[in-house]
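User: I've been trying to design a sequence by hand for this structure and keep getting stuck. Would you show me what you'd pick, starting by listing the structure so we're on the same page?

Assistant: Good idea, let's start from the same input. This is the structure you sent:
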């Protein structure tokens, strides 16, 4: 029996390493296919970009007349509130092609790792949300003088945006998959998504305010946000297969 265990252990290790090498490639292929279709249709990207533009204009009309001393308090909230709205808009439609064409069961039956599906959908969502941030941040810089700090520290700003969006997308993709075949999925996703993503959004808001105010502990704050992202990604990826398989079974019935 011990000899058998010694023989099986290298096989399991080798199978695990092969799977870990296969997942990134499959995720990239799936994400590239979705992004190609999105570039061809531009339906979701244009909708999210137009929504972002409208929100920036409304924010400008509502808050730009406030005193400059209040801008460091206003800008982080406007930034992450828009990210939350755009992210929810994207996540409610990220599984639309599989739902409308009834291909979710085919996707589950294909020789594709379930984690690859999760990371592919998360990557597509993250790309769209960060693309909208590319519209949102320059708009805030033009409207609010305090947001000039985004220009003075572009790499720190980019890092905060990526980390905040990654945490939001990690949780959102999991629940978008769970509601992929539900008729009331748009309402249900918003009801579930906002309470569960509030911690990462609030943490990202605090870090953004620290950036605008030049807080000396910004580096440790960024580390905390990165640690939260890792936890959310690990937990969401661990739960994704059971959520997706359950969704596929409901769709089959």
């Amino acid at each position: 029996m011990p000899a058998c265990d010694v023989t099986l252990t290298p096989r399991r290790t080798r199978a695990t390493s092969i799977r870990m090498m296969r997942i990134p490639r499959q995720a990239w292929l799936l994400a590239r296919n979705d992004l190609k279709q999105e570039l061809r249709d531009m339906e979701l990207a244009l909708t999210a970009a137009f929504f972002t533009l409208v929100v920036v204009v409304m924010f400008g009309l509502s808050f730009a007349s406030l005193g400059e001393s209040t801008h460091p308090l206003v800008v982080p909230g406007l930034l992450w509130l828009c990210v939350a709205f755009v992210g929810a808009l994207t996540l409610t439609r990220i599984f639309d092609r599989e739902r409308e064409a009834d291909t979710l069961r085919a996707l589950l039956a294909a020789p594709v790792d379930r984690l690859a599906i999760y990371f592919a959908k998360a990557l597509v969502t993250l790309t769209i949300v960060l693309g909208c941030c590319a519209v949102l941040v320059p708009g805030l810089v033009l409207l609010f003088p305090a947001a000039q700090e985004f220009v003075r520290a572009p790499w720190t700003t980019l890092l905060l945006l990526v980390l905040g969006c990654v945490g939001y997308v990690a949780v959102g993709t999991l629940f978008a998959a769970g509601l992929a075949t539900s008729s009331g999925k748009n309402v249900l996703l918003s009801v579930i998504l906002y309470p569960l993503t509030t911690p990462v959004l609030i943490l990202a808001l605090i870090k953004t305010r620290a950036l605008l105010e030049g807080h000396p502990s910004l580096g440790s704050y960024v580390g905390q946000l990165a640690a939260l992202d890792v936890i959310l990604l690990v937990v969401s990826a661990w739960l994704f297969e059971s959520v997706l398989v359950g969704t596929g079974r409901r769709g089959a019935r």
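That's my pick for every position. To get oriented when you compare it with your attempt: Residues 26-252 form one domain. Confidence is low (pLDDT under 50) at residues 1-6.
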